[in-house]
Amino acid sequence: MSSAKQYTREEVNKSNGTGKTLVIIHDKVYDVTVFLNEHPGGEEVLLDHGGKDASEDFDDVGHSEDAQVLMKQYMIGELVEAEKTNKTPKKGWVAGSSSKNPEKDKYVSGPGLPFYLLVVGLLAVLFAIYYLR
Question: Are 71 and 30 within 8 A, CB to CB?
């Protein structure tokens, strides 16, 4: 049993619209209220997930190691044991990991190419399709 404050999904959901923005990510509860204006994806993303489990969307976007570290300061508790999903986080796509740190690697994986190369490659394909048809 953990010493972290325990929340039910209903408690997290009821907090939405009370001036607080709580989200659930991998069975942990985060108060992201003060982070709304700093979120690189915009505050709307966090507000849309307020009071909900954002685990799948969080994983699908792929967050950097810095984001993984930053979010620790916003954790205020976890779900009660009976409501935990205990699902392992999906491996993200943003940055390849060349580290020897398995804790980091469970969040970040990939071919080792920087994200900008993926973007440049996609733009090159779109350019070719548009101009070479």
Answer: yes
- Strands 22-25, 28-31: pairing is antiparallel
Kind of pairing, strands 6-7 and 75-79? parallel
| Backbone dihedral angles phi then psi of residue 103, each to the nearest 5 degrees | -65, -40
Torsional class of 46: left (φ above 0), alpha (ψ -120 to 50), beta (otherwise): alpha
Q: Would you give per-residue pLDDT tens digits along the chain (133 residues)?
A: 557 899 999 999 998 878 899 999 999 999 999 998 888 888 888 988 999 999 888 888 877 788 888 889 999 999 999 999 887 776 654 433 444 444 444 444 444 557 777 788 888 888 888 888 7
Between CA 31 and CA 50 the distance in angstroms is 9
Phi and psi at 77, nearest 5°, equal: 170, -160
Residue entry with tokens 């409501």: 83
Q: How far apart are CA 126 and CA 49, in angstroms?
A: 32
